[in-house]
Amino acid sequence: xxxxxxxxxxxxxxxxxxxxxFISLNKNSIYDTKGLVGQKITNVQLDHFSKNKIITEKDxxxxxxxxxxxxxxxxxxxxxxxxxxxxxxxxxxxxxxxVNFKDNKKNAQNFLLELGNPYDDLAEDSLGKQSIxxxxxxxxxxxxxxxxxxxxxxxxxxxxHSDNEYIRSVINKK
Length: 174
Prior knowledge:
The protein has about 170 residues and is of the alpha/beta class. The chain has helices at about 1-25, 55-60, 75-90, 105-115, 160-170; strands at about 45-50, 55, 65-70, 95-100, 120-125, 140-145, 150-155.
């Protein structure tokens, strides 16, 4: 009797493991943030980089468009996109908020001194916890929002010249 219970338990365990395996095959394991487009960002609580201040949704809604760019001094692709961000900074309808991600403050300051500061304002996310609210899972990443805090587009990887043209076309629509 005890042998039957052990055999039945083993059989049920094997069926359970196989069932979990087949269920997991049907799940999409690719982290996708395309669903964020069209959504409103909320609960923005970013520490300002140099002031004793918190950047909130109210601050972001004062701009016609805001490009929120997550970057770090240790990030090679962030160096590559800096010149494109400097070009974008010339747009009057666009404000660029840089969020320094898991970085040493002194290194971040040196990065901006060396390459130029494309940001209208700077925040920091030294632990990377606030970035999760934006769907950020690597850097550089950027999010273009309008004054209603609706996400227009998310850019994964460095902003390119073609991204620059796209952003300019969106913000300069009449």
